[in-house]
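Lecture notes, part 5. Sequence design as translation. It can be helpful to think of inverse folding as translation between two languages: the language of shapes and the language of residues. The source text, in C-alpha cells, appears below.
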C-alpha cells in the first residue's frame, strides 16, 4: 500500500511541475504609436518556435484625416535574438488595405463651394519590415518596427503603404 501511495505522490508532483512550466506561445499587442495618431492597431502573434512567429494585425482609423482607413495584415517574423521570439527581427507581410484617394477631395477653383466626395480604394500589398522586440521577465512586450509595402492593383490608390509601430503587449 505504501508503494502505491509513493507512486501516486510522485505522479502528482510531476504533473504539478509540468503545469507550472507551461510554455507561452501567444501574444496580444496594441500599436501605441498608431493609437495616439487616431488609428489603433491590434495584433495577435503565435510563436512557431524560438526563432519564428506568425501573426495578424487589424487597423481601423476613427479619424477622417488619415489616408489609411482600414488594414488587415498577416505577417511572418524571423527573430535573431537570444531570448525566445525576441530581439532583432525581419518581417514579411501582406496587407489588405483601404485608403482614401485624395484626387477626389478638392475645390476646382476659388469661390466654388462644392467639394467632390472622397473615394476609398481597396488594395493588396506585399512588403517587408525590420524591428526589435524586448521582453520583460513577466512576459510584457515592447517592440518597434518599420517597413513599406507596395500595392498591386491598378486603381487610383496609393502605391506605397507604411508598416510601422511602437507596440506594447503581453505574452501568455
Amino acid at each position: 500500500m505504501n508503494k502505491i501511495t509513493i507512486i501516486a505522490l510522485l505522479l502528482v508532483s510531476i504533473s504539478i511541475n509540468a503545469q507550472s512550466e507551461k510554455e507561452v506561445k501567444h501574444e496580444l499587442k496594441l500599436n501605441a504609436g498608431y493609437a495616439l495618431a487616431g488609428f489603433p492597431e491590434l495584433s495577435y502573434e503565435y510563436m512557431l518556435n524560438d526563432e519564428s512567429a506568425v501573426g495578424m494585425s487589424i487597423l481601423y482609423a476613427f479619424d477622417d484625416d488619415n489616408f489609411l482607413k482600414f488594414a488587415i495584415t498577416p505577417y511572418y517574423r524571423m527573430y535573431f535574438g537570444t531570448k525566445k521570439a525576441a530581439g532583432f527581427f525581419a518581417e514579411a507581410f501582406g496587407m489588405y488595405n483601404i485608403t482614401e484617394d485624395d484626387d477626389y477631395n478638392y475645390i476646382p477653383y476659388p469661390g466654388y463651394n462644392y467639394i467632390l466626395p472622397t473615394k476609398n480604394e481597396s488594395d493588396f500589398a506585399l512588403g517587408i519590415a525590420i524591428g526589435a522586440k524586448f521582453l520583460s521577465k513577466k512576459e510584457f512586450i515592447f517592440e518597434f518596427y518599420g517597413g513599406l509595402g507596395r500595392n498591386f492593383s491598378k486603381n487610383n490608390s496609393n502605391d506605397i503603404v507604411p508598416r510601422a509601430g511602437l507596440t506594447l503587449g503581453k505574452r501568455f
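The translated text above is only one of many valid answers, since several sequences can fold into similar shapes. The mean pLDDT is 84.
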